[in-house]
Design goal:
Helices cover about 30% and strands about 30% of the residues. By secondary structure, the protein is of the alpha/beta class. The protein has a single domain, classed as Class I glutamine amidotransferase (GATase) domain (Rossmann fold), CATH 3.40.50. Helix 3 packs parallel to helix 5. The mean pLDDT is about 95.
């Protein structure tokens, strides 16, 4: 993908924390140079030890160092952790709780600043949508709706687009009537790849998945599939 510096590789579901779709992490690491350092946050899943173990083992196999930010880290500790990282990988889980925790501790500012310095943003599900102006959240079972994210990437993002039909339909409806801004819908086993020159592509590791650009056109939602990176 010769389009300028890669700034984000964001998956809709699956990947390293679930032990699936290994091509996604291989693709990410291939963009980062020799022996990259990847910072991992498991805030959304309460630092699930099984997922953390998978992250360490998978990225080590790919020749990358993992630096984990503990669940109860302070903003100062996060600032130290972020120094020298090539990418930040955010695990999936409970989106609202994760963002609330970051805002209460000041870690949200650390992550935003790191992304603006050029550290590659990556993650899955909650860890993908959190970087946008608005994440399309399931409301913890109370109904799908927009949730304000970190605002590093403009627009909105919907995860699990190929595996959760109700979420997909709700996102289309929100885009169509303007309740959420234009953005991207990402399937499980696929990743949105954004470059520094505002080019969007897809890395697809699972048959039948993909990534779509979502726009409001004449009062309806138009979803356009992205080509492969």
């Amino acid at each position: 993908m010769q389009t300028g510096q890669i700034k984000a590789v964001l998956s809709g579901g699956g990947g390293v924390t679930h032990g699936t779709d290994p091509a996604l992490e291989a693709f990410l690491v291939s963009l980062l140079g020799d022996r990259p350092c990847i910072g991992y946050l498991g805030t959304a899943n309460g630092d699930n030890p099984e997922r953390l173990d998978r992250v360490y083992r998978r990225f080590d196999k790919l020749g990358a160092e993992v630096r984990h930010l503990p669940l109860r880290a302070t903003a100062d500790e996060a600032g130290q952790w972020a120094r020298g990282l090539d990418a930040i990988y955010v695990g999936g889980g409970q989106t609202e709780r994760m963002l609330r925790t970051w805002r209460e501790t000041g870690i949200d500012r650390v992550l935003s600043d790191a992304a603006k310095r050029g550290i590659v943003m990556s993650g899955v599900s909650a860890g993908a949508v959190c970087w946008f102006d608005y994440a399309f959240w399931d409301g913890a079972g109370t109904g799908f709706r927009p949730l304000e994210g970190l605002g590093v990437i403009a627009g909105s993002c919907c995860p699990h687009f190929t595996t959760e039909p109700e979420r997909a339909a709700a996102y289309r409806a929100h885009v169509a009537d303007g309740r959420i801004p234009a953005g991207y819908a990402i399937g499980d086993g696929a990743a949105l790849v954004l470059s520094g020159v505002n080019v969007a592509k897809a890395c697809i590791a699972r048959p039948g998945s993909g990534v779509w650009k979502a726009e409001r056109v004449a009062g309806d939602a138009r979803l356009t599939p992205l080509s492969s990176a």
